[in-house]
Design goal:
The complex is a heterodimer of chains A (139) and B (124).
Chain A (H helix, E strand, L loop, with lengths): L2 H28 L8 H8 L3 H20 L4 H8 L2 H13 L5 H23 L5 H8 L2
Helix pairs in contact in A: 1-3, 1-5, 4-6
Chain B lengths: L7 H25 L7 H9 L2 H23 L2 H7 L2 H14 L5 H20 L1
Helix pairs in contact in B: 1-3, 1-5, 5-6
The chains are: A mainly alpha (139), B mainly alpha (124).
Chain lengths: 139, 124
């Protein structure tokens, strides 16, 4: 598989698992109040079905992530994996009746711009393979 | 849902989440980036015999509980944006521990993400 296709598919899969995880977490969290550091709280968390949706999201993201990390540097890979902030924010408006306040929209735009910068920083870092240099210098 | 004020409990959970996530991600990078690990199943066995992947998984488990607690106190759209600060923490840590370069473009990215998180934290 070409490297670009590998990254694209990997990051899309990661975004899907991360979104499933985040949505499940919120459903679980809605049943987690009040927050206490107690066994009763842990039991309440782990007997709630949505927690297992979050676990599936985690496990799927884990294996996707470990496969991606073998080739990608951690910083930019982590940044690209965070494009999920946008999908999750839009999904939470739809699923949880949350509002896109001005602060959230401005904040999300700045974060997105930051993530795009990090993505470009990564593509500028591309170091040519030895064969590429070799064939370019040979006449 | 209106903006939620950031209480000391929310701030503490947010900070713990950043710290533990950073530790976990660095441990995963240490596990995954080991060139001696080989390929396929042998790679997974090699990683399982070393502490890094287990430190990563342990961090995930703790972070799991912290994140549920955090989400129970905030709307998801706000929480997911505040959680983006982890990008910054991990890039800075990757710079110091793995020598990953902080170019001008990466620094701009870091500043923009930080600005975004600050806006969400201040306005909600």
């Amino acid at each position: 598989m070409r490297r670009g296709t590998f990254y694209l598919l990997g990051f899309l899969l990661l975004m899907l698992f991360d979104s499933i995880g985040a949505i499940s977490f919120k459903y679980a969290g809605d049943h987690a109040l009040p927050v206490e550091a107690s066994i009763a709280w842990l039991l309440r968390i782990f007997t709630h079905p949505w927690v297992y949706g979050a676990v599936i999201g985690y496990i799927g993201a884990f294996f996707t992530w470990m496969t991606l990390l073998k080739h990608a540097p951690i910083g930019p890979a982590f940044a690209a994996s965070h494009l999920e902030v946008v999908s999750v924010m839009l999904l939470s408006v739809w699923l949880f009746d949350e509002h896109l306040t001005l602060g959230r929209v401005l904040g999300a735009l700045a974060i997105l711009a930051g993530i795009v910068c990090l993505g470009f920083a990564e593509s500028n870092e591309h170091v040519p393979e030895p064969e590429e240099v070799d064939s370019a210098t040979r006449r | 849902m209106p903006a939620t004020p950031i209480t000391p409990l929310i701030a503490t959970l947010w900070l713990l989440n950043v710290i533990i996530d950073t530790v976990g991600q660095l441990a995963f990078k240490a596990a995954a980036g080991d060139q001696a690990a080989g390929d396929g199943l042998a790679r997974w066995i090699y990683m399982a015999r070393r502490p890094w992947i287990w430190i990563g998984i342990g961090s995930y488990v703790i972070e799991f509980l912290i994140w549920i607690a955090f989400l129970s106190l905030l709307p998801l759209s706000e929480a997911i944006l505040l959680g983006s600060i982890n990008i910054v923490a991990i890039m800075v840590a990757g710079h110091f521990l793995f020598g990953e370069k902080l170019t001008r473009l990466r620094l701009s990215g870091i500043l923009l993400v930080t600005l975004g998180v600050a806006i969400v934290g201040a306005v909600g």
